[in-house]
Design goal:
The complex is a heterodimer of chains A (197) and B (746). Chain A has 197 residues and is of the alpha+beta class. Chain A has 6 helices and 9 strands. Chain B has 23 helices and 24 strands. Classes of the chains: A alpha+beta (197), B alpha+beta (746).
Chain lengths: 197, 746
Amino acid sequence: MHKTLLALSLAVLTTASFASTVGQPAPNFSLTDSNGKSHSLADFKGKTVVLEWTNAECPFVKKHYGADNMQAQQGAATASDVVWLTINSGAQGKQGQVDGAGANQLISKQGFKSSAYLLDASGVTGRAYGAKTTPHLYIVDAAGVLRYNGAIDSIPSADSADIPKATQYVPQALAELAAGKPISVASSQPYGCSVKY
Amino acid sequence: MAKGSFVNNLNFLLAGLGALPRCESLVWRATPRSSRLASHPNPTAKSPSYFLTSPNFTRIWFATLLTMAFAGPLWSAAEVTTSELKISLVSESQALVPGGQQFLGLLIEHQPHWHTYWQNAGDSGIPTKLSWQLPAAVKAGEIQWPHPQRFDLSGIINFGFDDRVLLLVPIDIASDLSERATLAVRVDWLVCREECIPGRADLALELPVAAQTSADPLFVADFAATRARLPQVVDWSARVQLDAEQARVEVALPADFPANEKPELYPLQIEVLSNARPADVSVGNGVLLWPAARSEYLQTVPEHVDLVIVNGTPPNSRAYQVRAAVVNVGTVAGTAEWATATAGARAEPMSLAAALLFALLGGAILNLMPCVFPVLTLKALALRSDSADLRHGLLYALGCVLAFVALAAVLLSLRAAGAVLGWGFQLQSPWLIGILVYLFFAMGLSLSGVYSFGERWMGIGQTLTEGESDRAAFFTGVLAAVVASPCTAPFMGAAMGYALTQSAPLALSVFATLGLGLALPFVLLCVIPGLAQRLPKPGVWMDRFKQVLAFPLYLSAVWLLWVYGEQQGPLAMARLAGGAVFLAFALWLLGLPAPLRWLRGVSIAVALAAVVFALQAGAQLQSTTQRSESANYEAYSAQRLAQLRQLGKPVLVNMTAAWCITCLANERVALSTDAVRSKMQELGVTYVKGDWTRRDDAITRYLAQFSRSGVPLYVLYPARGEPRVLPQLLTADLVVAELDALGRKP
């Protein structure tokens, strides 16, 4: 019985990970934000959505927030009517996991410009997307199709000095998407700390 | 001690640094001495890597090192210690010899639970990076990486190192190097436990120049350990078949590749294979099969991917590096053909026609299975009283075929989902066995005349299979297929093994043919009038005969009950038997001539509740009983088999299951006879038995090595050389003859 259940859940998980393939519909989710408001992907149908996996104590996240790279990307995206959702899939008690108040503190201290900070302590949404690292970024287009899955930029390092030299994949893909062009880099292996499921 | 004096000097330098907070908010866990030396006024600035990029830093540090070097004796290591690890730059030799190649090493000593990364870090993490600053006469090569190990952090898979590891770096020394040289390197690393801490350090090593040199005894063991872990580049054939979901790796192994239950495989390049170890890795027929998922980040398909294959764990591991061609295909068919074309492979692919013929024959033979025969005879009896025989025959055939196709479809989809399953899995589910026990028992009771059919709320199996309607004919076919499927008769095993390694349409056609074979005898009865007329005319004897037929059904029920007991233990078996009594009571009430309707309803409800309870309670129980180990065989494990083979012992492997009638018959008439036992003892043959009554992945993999997906399987290994697969129907004489032939071989 247990093995059968295991096989079934394996099948479900496998299906779920296939669901985060670029070009396929992005898995829907419903999560509560730092202010207790519920958001689901379906709410944003008709808008481009960026998903950003985060953990404020991860040095790779600090690299991009410390150098103001992430906030700049968030600001530019939201200014052009793109929804930017920051998601924390850290399990209860793991490094970087926050509650709503903790998230709001980060938002004001670091000047987040994302549309909402979503809490996914169960990790269900993170697993559904196959989020592996912090940061790990996804772009879902207006039709709900996944268009980008991968790293924030092209130089995997923890050194903020590399940011100006690197290709920033999300702004590039958003610009191409807005211009109706094919996305030149639609996936790349993400780098960073592991998501603390 | 040379190194000791350096360390003392360093410790002195570090002594004033206790005040530096262990501050995880600093992006850079820079080496303490660097921050001391750089003495920047604002250590909590947003980008604290400033002190490392300070142009003066390197110079000051080297100057300090040089002063120390001249002040004290020569030292052969520079090191940095954090609370997670200690990293030292070491030289294998105590001096530089002009005009030659020698080796430096980056020795990383991790604190428990911490790890750093391999050249492909896996799902997260960053490989350790070295940037050299060397005199013109010295050139450093790329890191020679020892093979890594897998780390699984809640499903995030990383490749790296823990404990103590040395990364090897070759250096070429020009012949014009004349004076002592400083070899400096900037090391960037990421060290993780669950949390991750990046670090950077500048390490420098000064070495004298000499005409000859000797190894530094401090690090001899570390260099040797790394060399033992370096992958050996080999030219084995290897390929990666890509489809939308899978990146299926096949590597043709040489004959002397050690049989190991768990080889590991690591791709050097990222974005081709996903990093998790697949559930159904197998080594068989000279092929390592590693059916990985395709990397989610793969965009441009590369021509090749380099793979490191590791057998065993350090320090007793062997690593090999192969280059695999990446082929983009829609299906993953043809492994057997590829393996045959590749050196060392032994698989013999069957042609489609042969497979279909075997499937037809195998299906027909299934009719003789004791659990199928009574059902069939019953239907044959019904034929005598019905005119629409042909239509019923065809419907029966349709039922058989559809049931087999449905089972195959389930099997294929489970295979696709990556579960390790073999044929017969439906009888490995206790639920199904429990229900079959009740079904057979209820059918038996009805044949014995305890109750009669026709009540519309009777068990669905009854109404569906009994009677003479079209629907009954169809569902009898379905039932025959379900009951027969796990008893893999001769001919059938190979056909199914073939089917399961093929593409889905091909596999389904083989299974459909199996169903057709099962239906064939009955269809013949229907369409050949002569055959049907040879059956006796209907009469009172039929009722008697019907009653007699109840007994094989009771026996079948007892057999299934025993299988259930083997799986779930005696307590669950007792519960199931108790449920059967309730069922009998309910059926008896049904059969009463003048029923009190409300009493009947209540009693039947209670009885059915008891049956459901028995099934549920039984299914939840984990069997705690171990089968008693009789003295003359050992339980199968791949390790044990490999060990016996290594010792050069002849081995007889018997893969069996409690629900496999053929297996039990073979054991009775051949394997457990005195003649065979004494012959095995005489020749020193170890008898290894694998029990597949419950699903067992190791045995499923073993069966797959021989292109089988069901039991029985008998394999005889001589002391040296190729194993021999014995037929699926054994006699004592045959086994003794095979053993004798084995004994005669050199």
